[in-house]
Amino acid sequence: MFKVIRITVLLFILLFVALSTWLTQARSTDWNNSLWVKIYPINADGSDASAEYISSLESDDFAGIEEFIARETERYGKSVSRPLRMELGRPISEQPPAIEPDSGALDIVLWSLKLRWWASSTAGEQDSIEPDVRIFVRYHGPDHPQLLENSVGMQKGMVGIVNAFGSRRHKGSNNVIIAHEFLHTLGATDKYDPADGQPLAPDGLAEPERKPLYPQRYAEIMGGRIALAANDAVMPKSLKYTVIGPQTASEIRLID
After folding, report:
1. Residue 124 has what pLDDT?
2. DSSP code of 149?
C-alpha cells in the first residue's frame, strides 16, 4: 500500500510539473502581456576588461532587444504595447555547467537538467519574483584569442546561456545573439547550416523572394546572418538589420 501511495504522489508531482511547464510556455507566446527577461552578466574569462565592462552595464544597453521585438510583433499585427521588458540583474560569479562537444543524447539531457537547476539556484537569491526568461551572458575580453563557445537557449526552463564580447563596439552584435537565444526559449528553431553557419533558404533568409536573391539586406534572426551569397554571410552589426521571418513567427505564435 505504501508503495502505491508513493508512486501515486510521484505521478501527481510529475503531472503538476508538466502542466506548469506547458502553461508557462503557452503564456509566453500568447502575446497578450509583456514578457519579463532578466540578464545576468558573468565574467567568463576572469579578465579585468570583462569586469570593467560588466560594471558599466545598464538596462538601456539591452533596449535594442525590446525595440526589435516590439517592431516585429507590431509588424505581425500584435497590439501589446511593450511585448518585452528587459532587466539587468546583478553579476553572477559561478559559471554554468559545461557540456562536452561530443556528448551523447543522455549526456545532453542530464546537462539540460543540471543547467535548469543551476539557473534557478544561482539566480534565486536576487529573484524574489521569478522572471519569465533568464539569460546568462558570459562576457569575454574584446581581445579574446579564440572563437567563443556556442550560445544556447532552452524552451524547457526558459533559460539561455550567451557567450559575448565585453566591449561597446560589440554591443549591437551581442544583442543579436541574445535575441536569437531568447527566441529559442519561446520555441523558435535554428535556420542555418550548423556546418558553416550559412542561413538556409528560404526560411533562414530575411527576403526569400528578393530578386536577385543575393545579396540579402537583412538577417532573419534565427538564420543568424546576412547572406551575401549562397556560400557567404556576415553577422549583422545590430538588430536594426534583422527581422523575424514567417516560419519563426509561426513557431512563436505571432502567426495563428
Report:
1. 74
2. P
- From 159, 220, 216, select the one nearest 191 (Cα to Cα): 220
What percent of the chain shows pLDDT beyond 90? 64
- Give the pLDDT band (50/70/90) at residue 144: low
**What does the alpha-carbon distance between residue 103 and residue 108 come to, in Å, rounded to a whole number?**
6
Taking a C-beta distance cutoff of 8 angstroms, is the pair 39, 66 a contact? no
Measured from the Cβ of residue 34, the count of other Cβ atoms closer than 10 Å reads 15
Question: For 251, what's the count of Cα atoms within 13 Å in the CB-facing half-sphere?
Answer: 18
Show Cβ contacts of residue 189 under 8 Å, excluding neighbours closer than 6 positions. 222, 248, 251
- The x, y and z cell numbers of residue 54, run together, are 560588466
Reading the block at residue 78, the C-alpha cell is 500584435
When the pLDDT of each residue in the chain is averaged and rounded to a whole number, the result is 88
Cell of 107: 549526456
Identity of residue 41? P
Q: Which helix (H) or strand (E) holds 106?
A: helix 105-123
Q: Could you tell me the pTM of the whole model? A: 0.88
Sign of the C-alpha dihedral computed for residues 177, 239, 88 and 18 taken in this order: negative
Q: What is the pLDDT of residues 177-227, one digit of tens each?
A: 999 999 999 999 999 999 899 999 999 999 999 999 999 999 999 999 999
Cβ pair 223, 200 in contact under 8 A? yes
CA distances from 219 to 150, 167, 176, 198, 253 (A): 19, 22, 10, 11, 20
What whole-number distance in Å separates Cα of residue 134 and Cα of residue 183?
A: 12
Asked if 241 contacts 219 with a C-beta cutoff of 8 angstroms, the reply is yes
